Amino acid sequence: MEDEKTNPAVTVKPYIGRFAPSPTGALHAGSLVAALASWLDARAHGGRWLLRIEDTDTPRCVCGADREILRQLDVLGLHPDEPPLWQSQREAFYQQALDGLVQRGLAYACGCTRRDIDAALQAQGHAHQRHEERVYPGTCRDGLHGKPARAWRLRCGTEAAPVRIAWHDRRLGAQAQDLTHQVGDFVLRRADGIWAYQLAVVVDDALQGVTHVVRGEDLADNTPRQIWLQRQLGAPQPAYLHLPLVRDARGEKLSKQHGAPPLALDDPLAALQAAAQALELPRVEAGEVVSWLSGATAAWARRWAIET
Protein backbone atom coordinates (compact mmCIF):
# COMPACT_ATOMS: atom_id res chain seq x y z
CA MET A 1 0.00 0.00 0.00
CA GLU A 2 2.83 2.41 0.75
CA ASP A 3 4.31 4.13 -2.29
CA GLU A 4 5.41 7.55 -3.42
CA LYS A 5 1.87 8.92 -2.86
CA THR A 6 2.28 9.29 0.91
CA ASN A 7 1.03 12.80 1.56
CA PRO A 8 -2.75 12.64 2.17
CA ALA A 9 -3.14 16.35 1.57
CA VAL A 10 -1.88 16.22 -2.02
CA THR A 11 -4.17 15.30 -4.90
CA VAL A 12 -2.32 13.07 -7.34
CA LYS A 13 -2.69 13.79 -11.06
CA PRO A 14 -3.79 12.82 -13.61
CA TYR A 15 -7.42 12.75 -12.57
CA ILE A 16 -8.94 9.32 -11.90
CA GLY A 17 -12.57 9.07 -10.79
CA ARG A 18 -14.87 6.14 -10.24
CA PHE A 19 -18.47 5.02 -9.88
CA ALA A 20 -18.89 2.17 -7.39
CA PRO A 21 -22.43 0.74 -7.24
CA SER A 22 -23.47 -2.18 -5.06
CA PRO A 23 -25.29 -4.86 -7.11
CA THR A 24 -28.29 -5.04 -4.78
CA GLY A 25 -30.51 -4.20 -7.75
CA ALA A 26 -30.57 -2.24 -10.98
CA LEU A 27 -29.68 1.45 -11.18
CA HIS A 28 -32.49 3.82 -10.22
CA ALA A 29 -32.88 7.58 -10.66
CA GLY A 30 -30.80 8.34 -7.55
CA SER A 31 -27.89 6.12 -8.50
CA LEU A 32 -27.90 7.56 -12.02
CA VAL A 33 -27.31 11.01 -10.52
CA ALA A 34 -24.14 9.72 -8.83
CA ALA A 35 -23.02 7.85 -11.96
CA LEU A 36 -23.56 10.84 -14.23
CA ALA A 37 -21.91 13.33 -11.86
CA SER A 38 -18.80 11.18 -11.45
CA TRP A 39 -18.60 10.62 -15.22
CA LEU A 40 -19.03 14.34 -16.00
CA ASP A 41 -16.45 15.34 -13.41
CA ALA A 42 -13.90 12.95 -14.90
CA ARG A 43 -14.59 14.12 -18.45
CA ALA A 44 -14.55 17.82 -17.49
CA HIS A 45 -11.12 17.30 -15.90
CA GLY A 46 -9.88 15.40 -18.95
CA GLY A 47 -9.43 12.38 -16.71
CA ARG A 48 -10.27 8.68 -16.53
CA TRP A 49 -13.50 7.16 -15.19
CA LEU A 50 -13.49 3.71 -13.61
CA LEU A 51 -16.31 1.35 -12.69
CA ARG A 52 -16.11 -0.79 -9.55
CA ILE A 53 -18.78 -3.29 -8.51
CA GLU A 54 -18.87 -3.23 -4.71
CA ASP A 55 -20.14 -6.75 -4.07
CA THR A 56 -18.39 -7.70 -0.84
CA ASP A 57 -21.70 -7.84 1.08
CA THR A 58 -22.76 -10.99 -0.74
CA PRO A 59 -26.01 -11.66 1.23
CA ARG A 60 -27.41 -8.36 -0.09
CA CYS A 61 -26.30 -8.82 -3.69
CA VAL A 62 -28.92 -9.76 -6.28
CA CYS A 63 -27.98 -12.34 -8.88
CA GLY A 64 -27.47 -10.67 -12.27
CA ALA A 65 -27.72 -7.11 -10.90
CA ASP A 66 -24.10 -6.40 -11.81
CA ARG A 67 -24.73 -7.35 -15.46
CA GLU A 68 -27.86 -5.21 -15.52
CA ILE A 69 -25.94 -2.20 -14.15
CA LEU A 70 -23.32 -2.63 -16.87
CA ARG A 71 -26.06 -2.82 -19.49
CA GLN A 72 -27.79 0.31 -18.17
CA LEU A 73 -24.57 2.33 -18.17
CA ASP A 74 -23.82 1.19 -21.71
CA VAL A 75 -27.26 2.31 -22.93
CA LEU A 76 -26.71 5.68 -21.23
CA GLY A 77 -23.33 6.17 -22.96
CA LEU A 78 -21.43 6.11 -19.64
CA HIS A 79 -18.52 3.90 -20.64
CA PRO A 80 -15.63 3.24 -18.23
CA ASP A 81 -12.06 3.68 -19.41
CA GLU A 82 -10.96 0.30 -18.06
CA PRO A 83 -12.71 -3.06 -17.60
CA PRO A 84 -14.89 -3.08 -14.46
CA LEU A 85 -13.47 -4.37 -11.20
CA TRP A 86 -15.39 -6.66 -8.80
CA GLN A 87 -14.53 -6.35 -5.10
CA SER A 88 -15.47 -9.98 -4.50
CA GLN A 89 -12.32 -10.92 -6.43
CA ARG A 90 -9.98 -8.81 -4.27
CA GLU A 91 -9.93 -10.69 -0.96
CA ALA A 92 -6.13 -10.95 -0.94
CA PHE A 93 -5.65 -7.16 -1.10
CA TYR A 94 -7.99 -6.55 1.84
CA GLN A 95 -6.35 -9.30 3.91
CA GLN A 96 -2.90 -7.88 3.20
CA ALA A 97 -4.02 -4.43 4.36
CA LEU A 98 -5.60 -5.80 7.55
CA ASP A 99 -2.57 -7.96 8.34
CA GLY A 100 -0.31 -4.92 8.05
CA LEU A 101 -2.50 -2.89 10.40
CA VAL A 102 -2.59 -5.71 12.95
CA GLN A 103 1.17 -6.21 12.81
CA ARG A 104 1.67 -2.50 13.54
CA GLY A 105 -0.78 -2.57 16.46
CA LEU A 106 -3.25 -0.30 14.64
CA ALA A 107 -6.05 -2.87 14.42
CA TYR A 108 -7.21 -5.57 16.83
CA ALA A 109 -9.61 -8.49 17.18
CA CYS A 110 -12.97 -7.81 18.85
CA GLY A 111 -15.20 -10.43 20.47
CA CYS A 112 -18.17 -8.16 21.23
CA THR A 113 -21.68 -8.81 20.00
CA ARG A 114 -24.05 -5.92 19.40
CA ARG A 115 -25.76 -6.82 22.68
CA ASP A 116 -22.39 -6.64 24.47
CA ILE A 117 -21.75 -3.19 23.04
CA ASP A 118 -25.21 -1.93 24.03
CA ALA A 119 -24.74 -3.29 27.57
CA ALA A 120 -21.33 -1.61 27.89
CA LEU A 121 -22.69 1.69 26.63
CA GLN A 122 -25.65 1.49 29.01
CA ALA A 123 -23.29 0.81 31.92
CA GLN A 124 -21.47 4.01 30.95
CA GLY A 125 -24.76 5.91 30.92
CA HIS A 126 -25.02 6.05 27.13
CA ALA A 127 -28.13 4.06 26.20
CA HIS A 128 -28.23 3.47 22.44
CA GLN A 129 -30.91 5.37 20.55
CA ARG A 130 -32.40 4.13 17.27
CA HIS A 131 -30.61 5.46 14.15
CA GLU A 132 -27.77 6.70 16.37
CA GLU A 133 -24.15 5.69 15.86
CA ARG A 134 -22.94 3.05 18.32
CA VAL A 135 -19.67 4.49 19.61
CA TYR A 136 -17.58 1.43 20.39
CA PRO A 137 -16.59 1.56 24.10
CA GLY A 138 -13.19 -0.05 23.55
CA THR A 139 -13.95 -3.27 25.43
CA CYS A 140 -11.47 -5.44 23.48
CA ARG A 141 -8.76 -2.83 22.96
CA ASP A 142 -6.47 -4.57 25.45
CA GLY A 143 -7.49 -8.16 24.69
CA LEU A 144 -10.44 -10.47 24.13
CA HIS A 145 -10.85 -11.35 27.83
CA GLY A 146 -11.62 -14.98 27.02
CA LYS A 147 -14.08 -14.23 24.22
CA PRO A 148 -13.57 -15.65 20.70
CA ALA A 149 -12.54 -13.16 18.02
CA ARG A 150 -15.51 -12.02 15.93
CA ALA A 151 -14.59 -8.82 14.11
CA TRP A 152 -11.51 -6.66 13.53
CA ARG A 153 -11.43 -2.97 14.45
CA LEU A 154 -9.20 0.02 13.72
CA ARG A 155 -7.93 2.08 16.64
CA CYS A 156 -9.24 5.65 16.56
CA GLY A 157 -7.40 7.55 19.27
CA THR A 158 -7.89 7.72 23.03
CA GLU A 159 -9.39 10.10 25.57
CA ALA A 160 -5.93 11.54 26.07
CA ALA A 161 -5.19 11.77 22.33
CA PRO A 162 -8.48 11.86 20.38
CA VAL A 163 -8.55 11.73 16.59
CA ARG A 164 -10.20 14.76 15.02
CA ILE A 165 -10.49 14.77 11.24
CA ALA A 166 -10.93 18.04 9.34
CA TRP A 167 -11.45 17.92 5.58
CA HIS A 168 -12.86 19.98 2.75
CA ASP A 169 -15.71 18.95 0.49
CA ARG A 170 -16.02 20.62 -2.90
CA ARG A 171 -19.74 21.24 -2.32
CA LEU A 172 -20.27 21.13 1.46
CA GLY A 173 -17.16 23.14 2.35
CA ALA A 174 -15.24 22.71 5.61
CA GLN A 175 -16.12 19.50 7.49
CA ALA A 176 -14.90 18.04 10.78
CA GLN A 177 -15.55 15.05 13.01
CA ASP A 178 -14.24 13.87 16.38
CA LEU A 179 -13.70 10.28 15.33
CA THR A 180 -12.82 9.08 18.82
CA HIS A 181 -15.98 10.31 20.51
CA GLN A 182 -18.48 10.24 17.63
CA VAL A 183 -17.55 6.88 16.08
CA GLY A 184 -14.96 5.01 18.12
CA ASP A 185 -12.86 2.11 16.86
CA PHE A 186 -14.71 0.99 13.73
CA VAL A 187 -14.99 -2.39 12.05
CA LEU A 188 -12.69 -3.45 9.21
CA ARG A 189 -13.91 -7.02 8.93
CA ARG A 190 -17.31 -8.08 10.23
CA ALA A 191 -18.14 -11.00 12.49
CA ASP A 192 -19.60 -12.87 9.50
CA GLY A 193 -16.25 -12.59 7.68
CA ILE A 194 -17.42 -9.94 5.23
CA TRP A 195 -15.04 -7.07 4.57
CA ALA A 196 -16.36 -3.76 5.84
CA TYR A 197 -17.13 -1.05 3.30
CA GLN A 198 -14.57 1.29 4.87
CA LEU A 199 -11.59 -1.03 4.34
CA ALA A 200 -12.57 -2.25 0.88
CA VAL A 201 -13.21 1.22 -0.53
CA VAL A 202 -10.00 2.71 0.87
CA VAL A 203 -7.82 -0.16 -0.35
CA ASP A 204 -9.36 -0.14 -3.83
CA ASP A 205 -9.28 3.65 -4.22
CA ALA A 206 -5.58 3.58 -3.33
CA LEU A 207 -4.67 0.67 -5.60
CA GLN A 208 -6.67 2.10 -8.52
CA GLY A 209 -5.08 5.53 -8.07
CA VAL A 210 -8.42 7.30 -7.51
CA THR A 211 -7.84 11.04 -7.06
CA HIS A 212 -11.45 12.30 -6.95
CA VAL A 213 -14.51 10.77 -5.30
CA VAL A 214 -17.96 12.00 -6.35
CA ARG A 215 -20.87 10.40 -4.46
CA GLY A 216 -24.08 11.11 -2.50
CA GLU A 217 -23.97 13.21 0.64
CA ASP A 218 -25.33 10.28 2.69
CA LEU A 219 -21.75 8.96 2.53
CA ALA A 220 -20.15 12.18 3.79
CA ASP A 221 -20.26 10.86 7.36
CA ASN A 222 -18.04 7.94 6.24
CA THR A 223 -15.35 10.24 4.88
CA PRO A 224 -13.51 10.95 8.19
CA ARG A 225 -13.23 7.20 8.82
CA GLN A 226 -11.81 6.68 5.34
CA ILE A 227 -9.35 9.55 5.71
CA TRP A 228 -8.10 8.13 9.02
CA LEU A 229 -7.71 4.69 7.45
CA GLN A 230 -5.92 6.20 4.45
CA ARG A 231 -3.43 7.76 6.83
CA GLN A 232 -2.82 4.47 8.64
CA LEU A 233 -2.22 2.69 5.33
CA GLY A 234 -0.03 5.42 3.87
CA ALA A 235 -2.59 5.93 1.08
CA PRO A 236 -3.32 9.24 -0.68
CA GLN A 237 -6.42 11.24 0.20
CA PRO A 238 -8.71 11.91 -2.77
CA ALA A 239 -10.65 15.12 -3.27
CA TYR A 240 -14.31 14.69 -2.30
CA LEU A 241 -17.56 16.00 -3.74
CA HIS A 242 -20.77 14.89 -2.03
CA LEU A 243 -23.93 15.39 -4.06
CA PRO A 244 -27.43 16.35 -2.90
CA LEU A 245 -29.66 13.31 -2.48
CA VAL A 246 -32.57 12.49 -4.74
CA ARG A 247 -35.65 11.98 -2.56
CA ASP A 248 -39.04 10.37 -3.09
CA ALA A 249 -42.47 11.91 -2.42
CA ARG A 250 -42.14 11.05 1.30
CA GLY A 251 -38.82 12.87 1.58
CA GLU A 252 -36.90 9.59 1.92
CA LYS A 253 -33.64 9.05 0.09
CA LEU A 254 -34.41 7.35 -3.22
CA SER A 255 -32.89 3.90 -2.79
CA LYS A 256 -33.43 0.24 -3.49
CA GLN A 257 -34.09 -0.24 0.23
CA HIS A 258 -37.06 2.12 -0.02
CA GLY A 259 -38.39 0.52 -3.19
CA ALA A 260 -37.00 2.86 -5.85
CA PRO A 261 -37.97 1.45 -9.26
CA PRO A 262 -35.26 0.58 -11.81
CA LEU A 263 -34.45 3.19 -14.41
CA ALA A 264 -36.75 3.21 -17.42
CA LEU A 265 -34.36 3.35 -20.36
CA ASP A 266 -36.75 3.36 -23.29
CA ASP A 267 -35.66 7.02 -23.59
CA PRO A 268 -32.04 7.26 -22.32
CA LEU A 269 -31.84 10.97 -23.11
CA ALA A 270 -34.84 11.72 -20.88
CA ALA A 271 -33.23 9.79 -18.01
CA LEU A 272 -29.99 11.71 -18.41
CA GLN A 273 -31.81 15.05 -18.55
CA ALA A 274 -33.69 14.23 -15.33
CA ALA A 275 -30.40 13.37 -13.60
CA ALA A 276 -28.82 16.61 -14.87
CA GLN A 277 -31.78 18.57 -13.50
CA ALA A 278 -31.22 16.99 -10.07
CA LEU A 279 -27.59 18.16 -10.35
CA GLU A 280 -28.84 21.71 -11.06
CA LEU A 281 -27.26 21.80 -14.50
CA PRO A 282 -28.82 23.98 -17.21
CA ARG A 283 -30.86 22.10 -19.77
CA VAL A 284 -28.77 20.78 -22.63
CA GLU A 285 -30.54 20.51 -25.97
CA ALA A 286 -29.34 17.61 -28.09
CA GLY A 287 -30.94 14.97 -30.20
CA GLU A 288 -28.82 12.01 -29.19
CA VAL A 289 -26.85 10.76 -26.19
CA VAL A 290 -23.27 11.40 -27.34
CA SER A 291 -23.83 15.06 -28.21
CA TRP A 292 -25.90 15.56 -25.04
CA LEU A 293 -23.08 14.19 -22.87
CA SER A 294 -20.62 16.54 -24.59
CA GLY A 295 -22.85 19.54 -23.83
CA ALA A 296 -23.44 18.36 -20.25
CA THR A 297 -19.67 18.01 -19.71
CA ALA A 298 -19.19 21.65 -20.71
CA ALA A 299 -22.05 22.68 -18.41
CA TRP A 300 -20.51 20.73 -15.52
CA ALA A 301 -17.12 22.39 -16.10
CA ARG A 302 -18.78 25.82 -15.90
CA ARG A 303 -20.77 24.81 -12.80
CA TRP A 304 -17.63 23.77 -10.91
CA ALA A 305 -15.20 26.26 -12.48
CA ILE A 306 -13.07 23.53 -14.03
CA GLU A 307 -10.52 24.70 -16.57
CA THR A 308 -10.86 22.66 -19.76
UniProtKB/TrEMBL annotation:
Instruction: Cite the binding residues for Zn(2+).
Output: 110, 112, 136, 140
What's a Pfam family this protein contains?
tRNA-synt_1c
The sequence motif named 'HIGH' region is recorded at: 21-31
**Any idea which UniProt keywords this protein has?**
Aminoacyl-tRNA synthetase, ATP-binding, Ligase, Metal-binding, Nucleotide-binding, Protein biosynthesis, Zinc
GO MF annotation list: ATP binding; glutamate-tRNA ligase activity; zinc ion binding
Specify which residues bind ATP according to the UniProt entry for this protein. 256
Domain named Glutamyl/glutaminyl-tRNA synthetase class Ib catalytic is located at 18-259
The record's cofactor note says: Binds 1 zinc ion per subunit.
Which segment of this protein is annotated as the motif 'KMSKS' region?
253-257
Q: Which cofactor does it need?
A: Zn(2+)
Its Gene Ontology cellular component terms are: cytosol
Recorded hits in HAMAP family, A to Z, give: Glu_Q_tRNA_synth
Q: What does this protein do?
A: Catalyzes the tRNA-independent activation of glutamate in presence of ATP and the subsequent transfer of glutamate onto a tRNA(Asp). Glutamate is transferred on the 2-amino-5-(4,5-dihydroxy-2-cyclopenten-1-yl) moiety of the queuosine in the wobble position of the QUC anticodon.
The UniProt family comment states: Belongs to the class-I aminoacyl-tRNA synthetase family. GluQ subfamily.
- What is this protein called in UniProt? Glutamyl-Q tRNA(Asp) synthetase
According to its UniProt entry, this protein's organism is Azohydromonas caseinilytica
